[in-house]
Amino acid sequence: MDSILRRCKNCGRYTLRKDKCPYCGGELEVPHPPKYSPDDKYGRYRLIMKVMSGKIKLSPDVINAIISGSSQSKTQ
Ligand SMILES: [Zn+2]
């Protein structure tokens, strides 16, 4: 199934139009869905940065699990 959504390269808004952005007239591109992998070390790093900057509140043991690499063991 083809994606009907287009994203403006200029302002970043999503639109159903295919020619140009209805908001600013900018060029459109097909948005790529963000790939999330639990083993993505950069994704984990970004998460750590968010925690450190106070954007996400987590308990200390959860933070420790993320920092030490929780992907190696998945004990419930
Ligand atoms: Zn735009």
UniProtKB/TrEMBL annotation:
InterPro entries from the UniProt entry: H/ACA_rnp_Nop10, H/ACA_rnp_Nop10_sf, Nop10_arc-typ
GO molecular function: snoRNA binding
Species the sequence originates in: Vulcanisaeta distributa (strain DSM 14429 / JCM 11212 / NBRC 100878 / IC-017)
SUPFAM superfamilies cross-referenced by the UniProt entry: Nop10-like SnoRNP (SSF144210)
Function statement: Involved in ribosome biogenesis; more specifically in 18S rRNA pseudouridylation and in cleavage of pre-rRNA.
Family: Belongs to the NOP10 family.
Keywords of the record: Ribonucleoprotein, Ribosome biogenesis, rRNA processing
The protein's name: Ribosome biogenesis protein Nop10
Top-level division of the source organism's lineage: Archaea
Coiled coil: none
A Pfam family: Nop10p
BP GO terms, sorted: pseudouridine synthesis; rRNA processing
GO CC, alphabetical: ribonucleoprotein complex
